[in-house]
Amino acid sequence: MKYLKIKTLEKGWHDKDEILLHAAFQILTNFVEEEKPGEVIVWTSDGLHKKAWKEIQSLYKWWTDTRPARTSPINDKKLKTPPFKFKKIPGTDLREMVQPDKNEYAEYYRALSKHAKLETKWLEEDQKNLHRLIGIRGFLWT
């Protein structure tokens, strides 16, 4: 494999921390789906292999099923989203954003707060699982 096609990233700019996560899990995905290690490796040969195989399956399931199912309250199509409005700054050619009425968009701001907490939780989960993947790196061969 000369090139790694990362199927979980859309075209466009991505920060390197995001690319690293997706690249590592694309390698795991390719390993499971293309090399079919469950068919060619005797994972029951010893305790280390049993544990590694369980971890590979768990991480693969998390990456392909659990993680993509994440949902954020700010993506609710019924949520009333404030408009982006700008006003001219007197005496300049600049503009500043007009802050929306927090009472009128209270539900949106609650959803935004929940989203921020979820995002922190998800970043921690991503980091933990990336560490788990690195821990079994030595077993990703056929």
Give a short summary of the structure.
The protein has helices at residues 16-34, 37-40, 47-66, 106-135; strands at 85-88, 95-98.
Provide an overview of this structure.
The protein has 142 residues and is mainly alpha-helical. It has 4 helices and 2 strands. The protein has a two-stranded antiparallel ribbon. β1 (85-88) and β2 (95-98) form a beta hairpin. α1 (16-34) crosses α3 and α1 (16-34) packs across α4 (106-135). It starts with 15 loop residues before the first helix and ends in a 7-residue tail after the last helix.
What are its keywords?
6% strand, 4 helices, mainly alpha, 142 residues, 51% helix, two-stranded antiparallel sheet
Work out the helix count: 4
Physical arrangement of strands within the biggest beta sheet = 1-2
The N- and C-terminal alpha carbons lie at a distance of 14 Å
- Helix/strand-derived category reads mainly alpha
Number of strands: 2
Largest sheet: 2 strands, antiparallel
